[in-house]
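DM from R.C. (forwarded with permission)

"hey, sorry to bug you on a friday — could you get me a structure for this? deadline for the figure draft is monday and I only need the backbone to look sensible"
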Amino acid sequence: MKVALIGGTGYVGSYICDELIANDHTPRILVREGSESKVIAPKKCELVKGDISDENSIRELIKGSDAVIYLVAVIREFPKKGITNDKLQFRGSELAANIASELGVKRFLLMSALGANADMDASKYQKAKHLSEQVIKNTNLDWTIIRPSSLFGDPRGNNRPEFCKALKEDMLEIIPGFPNSLPFPAPSFFEGLMPFNSGEFSFSMIHVKDVAKIFVKLISDKKEFGKIINLGGNEDFTWDHIIKNIASASNKKVLMVPAPVSVVMIAASLLDWWSGFPVTRDQLKDLVKGSTCNSEDIFKKYDINPIPFNKENLSYLAS
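My reply, with the result:
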């Protein structure tokens, strides 16, 4: 089977590429100019040059494919560079779905996000994911929407953002990128005026390899057509626990200090434009809501034993 991967050079895409190859499928990957080195096993893939805004490239990619997987996500917006949730998440998935429908490529998998919604207080990221879901639902495609919680696992280099590595660099190093700098207090966020519940919002941390396995299993599983699947690991972890696990895996000590979200939000509102500031308003808004679910059924169905979120499986942070 030939599978069109949009977002195939990214973090999740690189692992899905591995899993497709391991199951005798051929990944067809959309590759932006300058990103050729990010392709995993290029000799076993079919590459199409272009980007998500290029209709002709998307058409070439999907034509001759048996299924489409849309993985594009915007971690941080940079509007002046054309990097926005609306363009790359919502409009990009809309274009891909319309072309797949036109070409008769029926199977379509969309990576959304746990908590995707259009509420007034939702982040731009969650709203764009929600709009993408609505687009896919309103097609004649055999769609499945996958909503993962926070992912972890080796990002395979510095060009793929990964949750735990980003937290290590932003909160456990005084000078980002210099692993031997001294540790300093990490924020234990809380809402409101009193820090009684600081750092207690939780996440169902799930390994990227498990997500990749489930995506590939879903391609040919007709029983999951037209369904939304929430994906999380087999255990929930509080924010404070996550930071302490990252510190332990990084061979660092960490002191958690209560930090009011309102104060950090003000700082973020002034510094959203600067990539050096560790968190945007949107990211902070999603962060303190947490992200948990129970995915026991899907793991059991596909006979997958979830990779635990522990020091051993965070060993990539030690370097």
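R.C.: lifesaver. Residues 163-201+237-287 form one domain.
me: no worries. The first strand starts at residue 2 and ends at 6.
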